[in-house]
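@channel anyone free to eyeball this complex?
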Amino acid sequence: MVNDILGTDVVVQIGIIVRNIEKAVEEYSKIFGVEKPEIIITDVYEKAKTQYKGNPTPARAKLAFFKNFKNVEIELIEPDDNPSTWREFLDTHGEGLHHLGFLVKGTQKIMEDFKKNGIEIAQQGYYTGGMYTYLDSFEKIKFIIELLENF
Amino acid sequence: MVNDILGTDVVVQIGIIVRNIEKAVEEYSKIFGVEKPEIIITDVYEKAKTQYKGNPTPARAKLAFFKNFKNVEIELIEPDDNPSTWREFLDTHGEGLHHLGFLVKGTQKIMEDFKKNGIEIAQQGYYTGGMYTYLDSFEKIKFIIELLENF
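replying in thread with the prediction:
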């Protein structure tokens, strides 16, 4: 059943915060016997327009995407020291699973629906071809919901 | 591509540790607009034969399974106070995403392959119709691998 709020019934991404992405990529690739993916870095503020808790932040993160499981993608994330949901998670919880990502259409409308359940935007930004929105759902359901919308 | 060690390329389950499962189930159901699943409790030692770090443990956990996403199941887990991977995770990391589960055949052989990469069994036990094995993969890849084998 397609979720009424999200408009999808598929978890597309599992996001994991790590301290040292080079080391984590190495271990992951070794354990699952897969090639090491490229490590990329999120765009600078001028392009990403990253907003964290309603304020602009220069925060960036190193990312690596593992596509070796067919039903869901695993993303490793190494935050920099600037304020972000990634850095906050690392400082509060340590390394570990950070978010579940959903591919959506109409982020604005979805956010309005989530607000009715007391869930607000934690962080929002752009990537080439789309926009991501992290919700502050952790306190209620113990994981962060990420809305991914491609244009 | 089917993973050489696991023999599967599908993540079947995302496991989340919570302090209060009744409250988390309530919030989850509200947020995703789904019916509340039954909360069950893992079997007593005599049936589950739970082994944690190589020793028997009376540990049990309350569980709730959300099947509202079509590609992966979400499991909420509230540990009791006895020694277990669930309790250890809660005490060390707090609430949050604990494991990714894979449906496998031949746990013993898979474990031997993981051992070659320095990964051992953290906890193992039985449920009606099958057996689960948590691996101590957290330090290396920042999530716990769970092998689920149904008989």
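from a first look: The CA atoms of residues 2 and 9 of chain B lie 5 Å apart.
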